[in-house]
Amino acid sequence: MTSATTKRVAVLGAGMIGEVHRRAAVLAGAEVVGVLASSPERSREVAAAWGVERAFADVDEVAAADLDAVHICTPNASHVPFAVQLMEAGKHVLCEKPLGVSLEDARHAAAVAQRTGVVNTMPFAYRFHPMARELRARVQAPAFGDVNLVHGTYLQDWLLSPLSTSWRVDPAAGGPSRAFGDIGSHWCDLVEWVTGDRIASLVATTSISIKQRPAALPAGAAAFSTVESDAPLVDVTTEDSAIILFRTEADVAGSAVITQLA
């Protein structure tokens, strides 16, 4: 039995991140009402596994449902269309990054949120790690003094094999930026959150080291899987690595190396 104050939520996307959002919602005291997966059949399968009431067939059913909020954990290119439709239906949205795959997309989603009066936000989860919270407390304490330089890395290796791939590699699904958009965004958010100082300007270079990858993962492979695929090769247009030099609003210099091939 749920109370009148319990938030009713749904999860769009049933991969690894969708399961993380489901668990977080339950731990926060929400009622997960239903799930929308990649097909009606998959929705029914996941709803049974999660023990939830609804297996949604499409986003129209989600928009029409009695929900307070919706978690969007689907491929990047679907974020703004889904978020806009759900906000127009009066639902708050917790959207996996990015809010949009272009500046125009993000501005459109922000305008709809402002007009409808609902929340459209991203969960930058690294902020809630105890180590990150301790670092923020120390850096922002008066005894720490001024920040003179910011430098760091975010290194992944799950796409190191030329025969590994993901929907993130495809710009039609993941957007024009991969490594920086996917993990560099986390690094930049942590820098700004820990220091309280915003990145104001930057220069960057990106590289594509593996020029071709398989067109698709094997059926059933997880999104971050290192399973190698024997699908036909296609040209890669999203970056494997990015290097940025930046300056903050407080005129602090910084740099970062971001890669999925470390």
UniProtKB/TrEMBL annotation:
Keyword Cell inner membrane: no
UniProt cross-references to PANTHER family, sorted A to Z: BCDNA.GH03377
Name of the protein in its database record: Myo-inositol 2-dehydrogenase
Keywords: Oxidoreductase
Gene3D superfamilies according to UniProt: Dihydrodipicolinate Reductase, domain 2, NAD(P)-binding Rossmann-like Domain
GO terms for MF: inositol 2-dehydrogenase (NAD+) activity; nucleotide binding
Enzyme class: oxidoreductase
Pfam families for this protein: GFO_IDH_MocA, GFO_IDH_MocA_C3
Enzyme Commission code: 1.1.1.18
Protein source organism: uncultured Friedmanniella sp
Domain Gfo/Idh/MocA-like oxidoreductase N-terminal: 8-119
Domain named GFO/IDH/MocA-like oxidoreductase: residues: 133-260
